[in-house]
Amino acid sequence: MEKLKQIYEGKAKKLYETESTDLLIQEFKDDATAFDAAKRGTITNKGIINNKLSEKIFTLLQKKGIPTHFIKRMNDRDMLVKRVKIVPIEVTMRNIVAGGMAKLLGLNEGIVLKQPVLEWHYKEDALHDPLINDDHVRALGIATEKELETIKKYSYRANSLMKKFFDSKNLILVDFKLEFGRYKGKIILADEISPDTCRLWDKTTKEKLDKDRFRRDMGNVEGAYEEVLRRVMN
Ligand code: UDP
Q1: pLDDT tens digit string along 202-216?
Q2: Pick from 220, 195, 189: nearest CA to 34
Q3: How far apart are CA 63 and CA 59, in angstroms?
Q4: 100: containing domain
Q5: Which of 71, 85, 94, 162 could crosslink 175 through cysteines, CB 3.0-4.6 Å?
């Protein structure tokens, strides 16, 4: 399978058509953006690391019954995936208060939530991905009731599986973002799962090992991504 026409270039990835109409190649770039692309930069080797980490997590979730778009990793930066129509909502799952939730509710980062919190954000950079609820999703026809229930079920299940997995690697899964798509009439998990989309803290020191190092100019961004890969592959 090889790359034919490029059909999309996003902030961190490019998508290419292949000989098969149902399959795309997803290429992971080193480009990084934050605050709706107001901040831009590159993180050396991020694409290679996120490709491998996404492979690992998608494989784990797939084995446990969550369908994903992942087919196989082809090389350092390319992954073969099913071609989906992305549902235009970002699903955020939170275990610990950080980032947007700390800001929205005036809370300190690090508060352990009594239960996971699932949020929908409408995917629209110009509006800064506003927080919406189930009624918005149904009333605007963004997804059907059945799709909503499926997405919720997969998201909570992914959270418990990923929490347990990262915990075994001495990492705390603080929060993360998922995107789903439609493939042959079914909802499947798509996009990527990486330190770009997950907040991961060292279990012992609480050191941040994710994109917050880039967002907040904390330094050693590359080192943090490499450390996550090293632990996950161990
Ligand atoms: N996130 C993401 N893409 C986005 C927004 C958030 O992958 O466009 C991830 C982010 O890395 C974090 C989680 O979703 O792990 C929750 O992010 P939050 O809503 O706190 O927003 P942020 O603090 O990134 O603005």
Answers
A1: 999 999 999 999 999
A2: 195
A3: 6
A4: 85-220
A5: 94
Per-residue exposure over 85-122, b if at least 16 CB sit within 10 Å of its own CB, e if not: eebebbbbbbbbbbbbbeeeeeeebeeeeeeeebbbbb
**Is residue 198 within 6 Å of ligand 1 at its C-beta?**
yes
129 touches ligand 1 (CB under 6 Å): yes
Residue 218 CB partners (closer than 8 Å, separation 6+): 208, 212
Alpha carbon distance 159, 146 (integer Å): 20
- Between CA 93 and CA 123 the distance in angstroms is 15
Contacts for 208 with CB less than 8 Å, ≥ 6 apart: 199, 200, 201, 218, 224
Q: Are residues 49 and 118 in the same domain?
A: no
Tell which atom from ligand 1 comes closest to the C-alpha of 98: 20
Q: Looking at the structure, do residues 181 and 102 belong to the same domain, yes or no?
A: yes
Q: How far is the CA of 177 from the centre of ligand 1 (A)?
A: 6
Distance (angstroms) between ligand 1 centre and the Cα of 2 equals 32
Instruction: Please give the pLDDT value at position 141.
Output: 97
Angle between helices 46-63 and 145-167 (to 10 degrees): 110
What global pTM score does this model have? 0.96
pLDDT tens for each residue of 1-35: 899 999 999 999 999 999 999 999 999 999 999 99
> Please, what's the b/e burial string for 7-27 (b: 16 or more CB within 10 A of its CB; e: otherwise)?
eeeeebbbbbbbeeeebbbbb
Q: Are residues 14 and 58 in the same domain?
A: yes
